[in-house]
Structures are given as structure tokens and as C-alpha cells.
Amino acid sequence: SEIPVLTIDGPSGSGKGTISRAVAARLGWHYLDSGALYRAVGVAAGWADLDLADPAALVRCAFDTDIGFRADPAGEPRVIINGVDATDELRTETAGAAASAIAAIPEVRSALRDRQRAFRRAPGLVADGRDMGTVIFPDAGHKVFLTASADERAERRYKQLKDKGVSVTLDGLLREILARDARDAHRAVAPLRPADDAVRIDTTGLGIEAVVERVLALVQP
Ligand code: C5P
Questions:
Q1: Do 56 and 159 lie in a common domain?
Q2: How wide is the angle at C-alpha 119 spanned by C-alphas 209 and 130, nearest 5°?
Q3: Measured between alpha carbons, how far is 107 from 119 in angstroms, rounded to an integer?
Q4: Whether the complex's predicted ipTM surpasses the cut of 0.85
Q5: What is the pLDDT of residues 191-216, one digit of tens each?
Q6: For residue 129, which of 34, 78, 106, 135 is within the disulfide window of CB 3.0 to 4.6 Å?
């Protein structure tokens, strides 16, 4: 495809979502939050009371679930699952854990592959996820792999959740992040790893704007 793609992969808490959205806005490009697709399937599976150990049912769920993205009047992205606004439920640790579990099923990943590629529309796409540069858009012209220390990622998440009034402990979050990292890095299909041609940026100690500028400089030197 001639339509440019910038892939931004990395572990949870690396700042991918914030950076990707900001870069997409600055470029005027479309934005794909691929994690939201996995989370949406996890949430829909929960609604349908599906067994997370029943791959066939989860694959059907991945094909059948209607997942829509739209901006609310304030411009904040909302995720609509089967007609229901599930944005808040999608961000919970439960949805993240369900997403991570179903994301390990190869047929679920292929069920979502074409949906992800359909986001590639003019004038360009910023694709945020774990395997954007390695599996979904291997031909992307620009690839970034964002990292940050586990401690810093846990702290960022802690602040986010505290601002929302969710009660969590820093220690608990750090343990969850390390467990999810291990699961995402060691699974047999599409393990989290940088594409060979990805530019790695360690965001530990860097502010959002500094990272956004570094990413934009790759696309518009
Ligand atoms: O990025 P986010 O935390 O929303 O992703 C939730 C989970 O979905 C991740 O922990 C990962 O297991 C899975 N995922 C994936 N491939 C992607 C995006 C997310 O496997 N491209």
C-alpha cells in the first residue's frame, strides 16, 4: 500500500497510547488502538459469560463482536461494543487481563488482523500495539519501539488510576505489569519484540512532549 504507516509498539505503560494519539493528531493521520480491539473482545466475552479457556468460543466472539470507535463532543475517544459505550469498562485491569489471555490465541489474532489493516486510510495511520511493526504492518515506513523501566510504568499507571479515584497499590501494579510483560513477551504467537527496523526510544524520565518530538522527527525529518 502507498498509504504511510507509523507503528508504535511497546509494553503497557510505555506511554504508547498517549504518544500515538498526540503524534496522530499532529500529523492529521488516523489512529489505531489495537489493544482496544483485544480488550473489546475480552469485555464482550465477559458479557457473554464465555470461558476464557474455550478458544473456539473466543474466536467466534472475535469475529462476531461489533467494535466501533468514535469521538465524544469533547473529542475524547469512545469505544462502542455491540452498540454499547464500553470505554470505561475497557480500561479496567480486568479487561486488560482478559485481553492479554485471549491475545495468546492465534485464531483470535488472525480474526482481528484484517480489521486492523482496514484502519490504513489516507492520509496515513499511526498504529499502536504490540505487533504493529512485526506482524500487522511489516511494510510500515516508520517503526518505533517505546520502552520505560517497569518502576516508571507502574508509577504512571498508579497516577492515572489515582486520578480516576481507583484504589490500587503501587506494589500490586508493578507485580501486574511484570506478569503481563512476561506473558506478552513469552507467548508463542506474536510475542512482544521490536521489529528489526524499529527505532527504540526509552521514555524513562522523558516528558510526553519530548517523546512526541522525537517520534515526529522520524516521520518528518
Ligand atoms: O495496549 P493494551 O494494554 O490496551 O493491550 C491489552 C492487551 O492486549 C495486551 O496486554 C496484549 O496482551 C494484547 N495486545 C496484543 N497485541 C496488540 C495489542 C494488544 O496482544 N497489538
A1: no
A2: 60
A3: 20
A4: yes
A5: 889 999 999 999 999 999 999 999 99
A6: 34
